[in-house]
């Protein structure tokens, strides 16, 4: 065990996933990315990820190789009740131990069957038998308990491959236990969500702030679909109050780029907009052309969205823009469907029709066909309106249909955040 | 080289991905699943997938280990122009060869820069220098050419990690060359897309057909989100016309389960519905409550959807159901929003309002809150209507909000396929 106020040697981990379905491409391995992220957050570095077949000799080979490189080996998959699930028996043989009944695991699996109103089968009962040398890791969401082994100063943990079972086990049990075992220093994280500025421009804008960060606070840029997450990782040196110190850095950053920050913490843009609307008791309606329903879909993807989302009109065809949304034919004829005038009317009219505080609208050419020399594919207008104002904005994208739609949706949601007047925010 | 009419030994492959971003969980490795699937289709089995760090010694260790197990090693990543991209120099050192300029690669990278109106930088010019012992693999979509090595009867191919560059290289060059190199027998695939029946029930229903398949035609079940893909893989034995033989098997299957098949080939349900509507010159409108715009979004995700999709109304709030969709208040009061009566009116009214051939509607409780004892979370009504009929269907799901919405969307699209009258199909 190392002292908390001392920077430890780097702890290295390896991940081994077991199962032909990953190798044959039937399943994309998303578990490893989750584990890599979470291990990183407590200061453990993943050195290698190995996916092997449902084959005992191959599993053993991967274990032996991983032990030469890593301090921690996390294994997922192969814990089901059927005969092609080999992980448990392979581990028992590897450690040369027998299996014994774990009462807590039996109680857990019995409970799960009871919940679904079914009798415990013998195959599932056998899932509660675990290698004698392991510390069981409770699985409250499934029938396969995890196993924690300590051998030659190495930690090996076997978990189910079912993502939500593995994630719960990692968060509740495995990560805290690893932190404790290796005496890892306390690590603190702050996430700042930004939108509307590319990674390199953002880096330039905050360079002076980044440079003045103390050595025990590191910054990572994590870009994704037009949004950049900034993650601060602080190592507790025991000298200052880390939480206070990090919050002070976040505050400095907030003053530097207030217009780009839409949330603090791991919050998606639709969630942030939902929170904003709920907080101020505001309602919203959508009028969509080129996004075809995606804006409404993102807003309703959040539980409890009926508190602020009344509804929307997908006016794909111009006749629907006129007849359902009441856009004037003159506007459509003079300016075209993809114009500031049309998109503004769409937003204003849907707000009035659905009697909401806010109306938002999209109209553009998502592609891959439908462009003209004056309005090429990717030309998109978005609008926001409330009782006081209407704001319209032109976007130009040069992506696939899907990405053009995604970016437009992100932008119109961001426009809500940017346009909401201070007076409104009081609710 | 083996004769085509002889079953060859199994060719084994390994995939090595290079790059810290996968290990640290910043990127999910989707490349490997693509490669596993495509290799499987030409009869090559993936034995292991290894993700290693941007570190020369670690890359070499992985290469050495892979060579003890596999005939083919496919490497992705680490081919960018910056100094942390180590793959090319590591491979040259591994094979103890120098780099030489490949004129075709230089022409390709110059062309790419020209397309974006930029001058070729020295860093990018260096990307056209390749290990002397490699056969270049053209990259028409990016600046890093691939490399094909043949050493000790093993094939090693290095490709960029950018998914669309790698996929194009695999499909156009690497897979055909592997087929030729190993004299792999011709393999034929037929995909049959089913929906509305679970994997185990489907397996039971088609067991007798599956059992009578000749040994050189294999069946795989590939379930995904309520749909099961059936993939037939036929090995050309040189005795019969494989294409004719396989089509005959597909025809037999079609007679056995016509109601569950929505397409032949890799076609998504929204695509299949789009094709059906376009083929018969039919138009459609959507009225959505619990799916919140997802049905419209899926329909408009298909390029050219303006040919059949006029628009939709997302009637999340009951007031919108009454005022925009014209659902009678009496219906809502008597039967509730989640009822056969309401969902039928929604479909009928949106069809009339938007003047389309078909109207579809959804109304239900997506969760996680909003359920009652009589109508628990997951209780959902869907409806289809045309000039001749209205069909409504009750669904019960017990999933997350997101999955309840996804399954409802799949089901209402499937209802179009199931309900479309023969008379209509003539167009």
UniProtKB/TrEMBL annotation, chains A, B:
SUPFAM superfamilies with a match to the protein in the record: CinA-like, Molybdenum cofactor biosynthesis proteins
InterPro entries: CinA, CinA-like_C, CinA_C, CinA_KH, Competence-induced_CinA, MoaB/Mog-like_dom_sf, MoaB/Mog_dom
Coiled-coil residues: none
One Pfam family cited in the UniProt record for this chain: CinA_KH
Family label: Belongs to the CinA family.
NCBIfam families to which the protein is assigned, alphabetical: cinA_nterm (TIGR00200), molyb_syn (TIGR00177), PncC_domain (TIGR00199), PRK00549.1 (NF001813)
Protein name: CinA-like protein
Lineage, uppermost ranks: Bacteria, Pseudomonadati, Bacteroidota, Cytophagia, Cytophagales
């Amino acid at each position: 065990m190392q002292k908390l106020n001392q920077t430890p040697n780097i702890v290295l981990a390896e991940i081994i996933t077991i199962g032909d379905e990953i190798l044959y491409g039937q399943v994309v391995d998303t578990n490893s990315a989750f584990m890599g992220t979470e291990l990183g957050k407590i200061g453990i570095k993943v050195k290698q990820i190995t996916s092997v077949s449902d084959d005992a000799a191959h599993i053993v080979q991967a274990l032996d190789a991983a032990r030469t490189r890593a301090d921690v080996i996390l294994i997922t998959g192969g814990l089901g009740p059927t005969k092609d699930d080999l992980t448990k028996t392979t581990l028992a043989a590897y450690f040369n131990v027998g299996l014994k009944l774990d009462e807590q695991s039996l109680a857990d699996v019995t409970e799960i069957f009871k919940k679904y109103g079914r009798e415990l089968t013998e195959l599932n009962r056998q899932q509660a038998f675990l290698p004698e040398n392991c510390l069981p890791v409770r699985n409250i969401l499934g029938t396969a308990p995890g196993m924690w082994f300590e051998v030659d100063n190495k930690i090996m943990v076997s978990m189910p491959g079912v993502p939500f079972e593995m994630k719960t086990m990692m968060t509740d049990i495995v990560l805290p236990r690893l932190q404790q075992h290796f005496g890892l220093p306390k690590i603190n994280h702050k996430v700042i969500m930004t939108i509307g500025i590319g990674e390199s421009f953002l880096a330039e804008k905050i360079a002076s702030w980044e440079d003045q960060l103390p050595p025990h606070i590191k910054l990572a840029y994590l870009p994704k679909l037009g949004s950049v997450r900034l993650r601060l990782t602080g190592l507790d040196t025991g000298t200052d109050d880390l939480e206070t110190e990090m919050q002070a850095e976040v505050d400095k950053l907030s003053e530097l780029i207030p217009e780009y920050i839409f949330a603090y913490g791991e919050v998606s843009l639709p969630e942030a907009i939902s929170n904003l609307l709920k907080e101020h008791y505001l309602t919203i309606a959508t009028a969509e052309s080129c996004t075809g329903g995606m804006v409404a879909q993102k807003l309703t993807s959040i539980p409890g969205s009926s508190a602020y989302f009344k509804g929307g009109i997908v006016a794909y065809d111009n006749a629907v823009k006129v007849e359902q949304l009441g856009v004037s034919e003159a506007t459509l004829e003079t300016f075209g469907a993809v114009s500031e005038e049309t998109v503004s009317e769409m937003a204003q009219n849907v707000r009035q029709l659905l009697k909401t505080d806010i109306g938002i609208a999209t109209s553009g050419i998502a592609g891959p066909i439908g462009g003209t020399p004056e309005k090429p594919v990717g030309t998109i207008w978005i609008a926001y309106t409330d009782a006081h104002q209407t704001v319209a904005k032109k976007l130009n994208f040069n992506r696939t249909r899907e990405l053009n739609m995604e970016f437009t949706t992100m932008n119109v949601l961001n426009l809500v955040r940017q346009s909401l007047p201070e007076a409104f925010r009081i609710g």
